[in-house]
Design a protein that fits this description.
about 800 residues; alpha/beta; OB fold (Dihydrolipoamide Acetyltransferase, E2P); 5 domains; 7-stranded mixed β-sheet; 25 helices; about 35% helix; binds S-adenosylmethionine; TRAM_dom; MeTrfase_TrmA_AS
Length: about 800
């Protein structure tokens, strides 16, 4: 039943595998039956919660003390309490629900504590051995294990000695890829030694990051297992040895036989052609014959040539036969060695290990976090001019492939560069990163790691934001790490009394920059996104009555002190806002509270000033937004005669509508977010623009589109979110009175799709695409903004 437990995070996996043992029978007063674990992280729906609540592990009438004893002495009960049982009566009351959840929390805490202690103990042991030079390089230890078995695989590089050459008995390194080991290997507590690449990562990082993919489903486990078998067969040319390796992968005791002396093994060149041979061996002749393409599997190492960059930032590489492999950070023209991390039906995803031949315009990335695997700027190692060429090509490819345009090269203009390719962003968001490692708990704020959405790399500064914004980041990081630059600095430490990780108070930090609403001087705003269990400040009196409420007040107090510290330490910080987000009856609720300073910032654009609420959308590159809006105005063909009625769909805080208003007879802006519409109206007033009107409507609803039925626009501008235009908007555009449509987009793929629909000559009211103008709003990243001009004769 163990494989039914699907851990959602490395930490949860540690809890599951490090502490609990599977319990095969669930004992209830009436019957005994097989248990079905429900991971706690999936207990988010009401029905699951009531399922967890209805489960009663204690005998009827037992006292609280008896229940507590049962909880702390019986792992079986603990596990059942933590994960609930999937097959129990769902009719018990809300009180039971609350109690079950409280107990769950308590047990989770106990479990984490014990699992972490075990883990730290194991790590300490290994470190000691390393210090005594017993083991030269250790990359990772599986968390639940005392070291028992060693595996070794040769890492084979293209150009190394030929196939038949014997291997030295003490190999320099071995492949440390936990995700591709079979489950049995994990059970056995395999100790992994480093590859050159893995050596850069910390002990725990590697183990945790690579364990995560194992945990999501039984299917993935078996795929991961087959990946390891592939690797074992690929390093052995002897059928007898292959068999023993496979058998070893299937049983714990036999697994060590896979670690046969390396002198018995023979090397295989892992260049793309030989990799296809090993794939063929693995799949069997029948399966390979069915497909003419070379289809790689997870764990395969390939040598690839990158032809272009796909939208999403990954390099596009083709295997012989045409199979596509997307590779993170691969650059066009580059030849590289990569390892497959996911294999899907029509494509695979790979992680770049090293460049064998670099892009001719490769440069050294200026940010230290680029080399550490920050997922933020995928193009930082490419010269800026080459970034522009690659981005334009992305737009051309999308227009040809998705938009079915016949001559996309002729339709797409060269991208307009950004004058300031670094430190240009007026808004950045950083997630809290907290990892338990052998050095203790390491915390910070950062971005997701490249190719791994579940893990976060803490950053000390970011090259895309300005110095003051970096100072805010560093101050909050110091508070999270309990490093005190001044004596009275409050701590946001996640460490509980026991030294283990507690619940984070601030989950995310957003820093915005603009100008101060009163002084007009450059100013910043810090938004602290807090955990939902921090009570809103107004409710403190009632909260005092319960322990939970009291804790919550203490947290609120800490936040207040952190806000004051930020205001003190960072000159130019205009305000600190607390944002609490939770779901109420499946609706997202956002609560904002000003902890210090001002609640809004202003932005200056095109000679106008705009109010910017903490959560309102605003273009993130203020300087380049003026360039973008100029391109929109040129495409719209407006003139100083003010003859046209402009309709601005998805208007946000009204920035496009108000910037173009001086050249229009009338302007109507449409937006679904109420606070953004309020900002847009206030912005109209504050800039004395009286012929602009703003309507709140959800443009995905055909009914709500009726609210603009009476507007007869001459020109329509739309700047939708990445998903593009909804079908109701496309129907509206075909039927409306406009002769010109200017489509601003931050996703060339959805824009190409919509343009094709709007230009479909079979339909009434079809437009013709005149050109697409890329504008680089996001240097160092793969993102690109585009302005497409569509026209029709009325
Ligand atoms: C990319 S932003 C553009 C904002 C604005 N044009 C600008 O340049 O700052 C997209 C805007 O569309 C709004 N939006 C998203 N879905 C919408 C919908 N279904 N109906 C109306 N507005 C929507 C968002 O709230 C956001 O303000």
């Amino acid at each position: 039943m163990e494989s039914l437990v699907a851990a959602r995070s490395p930490q949860q996996l540690i809890n599951l595998r490090g502490f609990f043992r599977p319990v095969r029978q669930l004992q209830t007063p009436k019957q005994s039956r097989e248990e079905l674990f429900v991971p706690r992280s999936t207990l988010k729906h009401r029905r699951d919660l009531s399922t967890a609540a209805a489960y009663q592990p204690f005998p009827a009438g037992s006292t609280q003390a008896e229940q507590k004893r049962t909880m702390t002495t019986s792992p079986g009960v603990q596990q059942q309490m933590m994960y609930g049982s999937g097959n129990v009566d769902c009719t018990k009351s809300r009180i039971a629900l609350r109690r079950a959840l409280e107990v769950q929390d308590h047990l989770q805490h106990l479990a984490e504590q014990r699992a972490q202690q075990e883990l730290l103990y194991a790590l300490e042991l290994r470190q000691q051995q390393i210090r005594q030079s017993m083991i030269p390089d250790v990359a990772g230890i599986l968390p639940n294990a005392q070291p028992r078995t060693f595996t070794r695989e040769t890492e084979v590089m293209p150009g190394q000695p030929s196939l038949q050459q014997p291997v030295t008995p003490e190999p320099r390194m071995h492949v440390g890829h936990v995700a591709s080991l079979p489950q049995q290997a994990l059970d056995a507590g395999v100790v992994l030694e480093t590859t050159e690449e893995a050596r850069r990562q910390s002990l725990l990082e590697l183990a945790c990051a690579d364990l995560a993919p194992l945990s999501s489903s039984r299917d993935e486990e078996s795929r991961a297992g087959s990946g390891a078998m592939a690797k074992l067969t690929s390093i052995s040319t002897s059928p007898a040895h292959s068999t023993s390796a496979l058998a070893g992968a299937q049983s714990r005791s036999a697994f060590s036989s896979a670690a046969a002396p390396l002198s018995n093994l023979q090397r295989t060149d892992l260049s793309s052609s030989s990799s296809s041979i090993s794939t063929q061996q693995r799949r069997g002749p029948g399966k390979c014959a069915a497909s003419a393409q070379q289809v790689p599997a997870v764990g395969d190492e390939l040598v690839l040539e990158c032809s272009s960059i796909a939208y999403g930032g990954q390099g596009v590489c083709k295997l012989p036969g045409g199979f596509t492999v997307f590779c993170e950070r691969a650059l066009p023209g580059e030849r590289l060695r990569a390892r497959v991390t996911a294999a899907k039906k029509g494509f695979a995803v790979a992680r770049k290990l090293e460049a064998l031949r670099q892009h001719s315009h490769a440069v050294e990335a200026p940010c230290q976090h680029f080399a550490e695997g920050c997922g933020g700027c995928s193009l930082q190692s490419l010269a800026y001019a080459a970034q522009l060429t690659a981005k334009r090509q992305q737009v051309v490819d999308a227009l040809g492939r998705i938009g079915k345009a016949e001559n996309p090269q002729d339709l797409v203009r060269p991208a307009i560069p950004c004058k300031q390719p670094f430190h240009y962003r007026n808004k950045m968001s950083f997630s809290l990163s907290a990892e338990q490692s052998c050095g203790g708990l390491s915390t910070g704020f950062g971005f997701k790691r490249i190719g791994d959405a579940s893990s976060c790399l803490p950053v000390s500064s970011c090259h895309l934001q300005d110095e003051t914004a970096n100072q805010i980041l560093q101050c909050l990081t110091a508070a999270a790490q309990n490093r005190s630059p001044t004596d009275d600095m409050p701590s946001l430490s996640l460490r509980g009394k026991d030294g283990m990780m507690g619940k984070p108070l601030v989950r995310r930090l957003t820093v915005r920059s603009g100008v101060h609403p009163d002084s007009g001087a450059p100013a910043h705003q810090a938004i602290l996104h807090v955990s939902p269990d921090v009570a809103p400040p107004g409710k403190t009196d009632r909260a005092k009555q319960s322990k939970q409420g009291f804790d919550s007040m203490a947290k609120q107090d800490t936040l207040q002190r952190v806000a004051e510290m930020l205001m003190r330490e960072v000159p130019g910080l205009a305000g600190v806002i607390q944002h609490r987000e939770y779901n109420n009856a499946r609706k997202r609720v956002d609560q904002l509270y000003t902890l210090a300073g001002s609640s809004v910032l202003q932005q200056r654009l095109c000679g106008l000033s705009f109010r910017m609420s903490p959560l309102a959308f605003f273009q993130t590159n203020s300087q380049q937004t003026e360039v973008l809006y100029r391109a929109v105005a040129d495409a719209a063909g407006l003139s100083s005669k003010r003859e046209q009625h402009l309709l601005d769909l998805y208007t946000g805080t009204g920035t496009i509508a108000l910037s173009l208003a001086p050249q229009c007879k009338a302007v109507t802006g449409v937006e679904s977010v109420r606070s953004a519409v309020a900002d847009a109206r206030a912005n109209g007033k504050q800039n004395a623009i009286h012929h602009a009107h703003f309507v709140q409507a959800d443009l995905s609803s055909a009914d709500e589109l009726q609210r603009i039925a009476s507007v007869n626009p001459d020109v329509v501008v739309a700047d939708p979110p990445r998903a593009g235009l909804g079908s109701s908007v496309i129907d509206y555009l075909r039927a409306c009175s406009a002769h010109t449509f200017v489509y601003v987009s931050c996703d060339p793929a959805t824009q190409a799709r919509d343009v094709q629909k709007l230009c479909d000559a079979q339909q009434k009211g079809a437009f013709q695409l005149q050109f697409v103008q890329p504008v680089d709003m996001f240097p160092q990243t793969h993102h690109i903004e585009t302005v497409a001009l569509l026209q029709r004769s009325m």
